[in-house]
Recover the amino acids of this structure.
């Protein structure tokens, strides 16, 4: 009140200013619960959503594409023309994710024979229709991609394993040999 008296020496001015201040303070006090509720709601939303918003988005979504197989190299590798856009195809080598099969140029006759059986099985499997390549990633060797491969909803890796022509392989670690 002392500041108001110093600024407004007349009693009438003091009364008007004090009434005005009382009105402003009263309105601020009345608005306080609504304002507090809005602030609390906003703070709660930030607290709940904050951690989810802070997580980085995936770098790239998993890719999938239809492919027309042009050549089967061995049980777990083939070449294909992959449709990547309207009227745009890319020829690439594809490594089948999740399986390891014997190598055509193996170290022993048993591996070479197993490789021929796995290759023939994969060729028949892939000839049944267009292959869907999903979860496509760059491979670590030979400029090929690694993908989950399916035809008609059947997974090639699982089919090779079920036919005992391949072994589960996640792409890491040392592969077991095929020669005894």
């Amino acid at each position: 009140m002392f500041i108001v008296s110093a600024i407004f020496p007349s009693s009438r001015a003091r009364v008007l200013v004090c009434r005005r201040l009382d009105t402003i303070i009263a309105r601020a006090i009345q608005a306080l619960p609504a304002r507090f509720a809005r602030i609390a709601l906003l703070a709660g939303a930030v607290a709940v959503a904050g951690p989810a918003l802070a997580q980085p988005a995936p770098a790239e979504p998993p890719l999938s594409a239809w492919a027309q197989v042009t050549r089967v190299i061995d049980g777990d590798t083939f070449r294909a023309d992959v449709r990547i856009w309207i009227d745009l195809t890319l020829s690439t080598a594809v490594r089948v994710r999740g399986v390891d099969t014997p190598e055509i140029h193996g170290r022993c006759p048993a591996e070479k024979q197993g490789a021929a059986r796995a290759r023939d099985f994969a060729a028949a499997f892939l000839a049944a229709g267009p292959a869907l390549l999903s979860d496509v990633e760059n491979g670590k060797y030979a400029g090929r991609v690694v993908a989950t491969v399916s035809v008609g909803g059947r997974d090639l890796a699982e089919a090779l394993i079920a036919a005992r022509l391949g072994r589960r392989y996640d792409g890491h670690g040392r592969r077991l040999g095929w020669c005894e």
Remarks:
- Residues 11-54 form the longest helix (44 residues).
- DSSP finds four helices and eight strands in the chain.
- The mean pLDDT is 79.
